[in-house]
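Good morning,

Attaching, inline, the backbone tokens for the sequence recovery test we're adding to the shared suite. The designed sequence is right after.
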């Protein structure tokens, strides 16, 4: 950058890829906090169970985890209760403009969503198409139907447009996915 009087200033902007995929989770976490404050639902992000093996204590107030492992594969990202129904869902982001890659959701997560539905709960996924600025809620039933009836390795955007519910960004809650639940699960409450 060139300033008056010949002063030059170098601006180094470091590119970081840390926390990619976190904006959807942050928005959902804020939405969940809002739902709790207004007493509309109780939904939380599930903690990931880890086993801590080594910790470094450089001084009394600073502890740094050196080695940790997942105890068990995590199930889905969020769970809670809404209108007397148990809900459980996974949140994913994709940069694709045309489809959601199925390898982004693990087999054990799909089986977990199936179990939730089998026991009368509501299971679904929320997928953000980042480059399109669109977020869809897709019922677990539609997710499972697609997987069982297609050999594709991705769910096309058109499937989300036909079967899913387009969620809108707004002020509060940031992403009102309960509106999508009300629409897609009409008559089940």
């Amino acid at each position: 950058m060139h300033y008056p009087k010949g002063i030059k200033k170098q601006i180094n902007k470091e590119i970081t890829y840390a926390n990619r995929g976190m904006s959807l989770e942050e928005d959902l976490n804020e939405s969940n906090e809002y739902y709790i404050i207004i007493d509309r639902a109780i939904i939380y992000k599930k903690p990931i169970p880890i086993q801590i093996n080594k910790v470094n204590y450089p001084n009394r107030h600073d502890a740094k985890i050196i080695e940790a492992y997942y105890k068990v594969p995590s199930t889905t990202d969020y769970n809670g209760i809404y209108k007397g129904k148990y809900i459980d869902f996974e949140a994913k982001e994709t940069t694709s403009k045309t489809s959601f890659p199925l390898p982004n959701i693990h087999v054990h997560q799909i089986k977990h969503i199936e179990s939730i539905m089998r026991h009368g709960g509501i299971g679904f996924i929320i997928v953000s198409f980042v480059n399109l600025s669109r977020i869809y809620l897709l019922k677990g039933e539609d997710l499972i139907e697609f997987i069982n009836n297609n050999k594709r390795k991705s769910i096309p955007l058109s499937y989300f447009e036909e079967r899913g519910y387009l969620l809108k960004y707004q002020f509060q809650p940031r992403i009102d996915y309960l509106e999508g639940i009300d629409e897609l699960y009409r008559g089940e409450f």
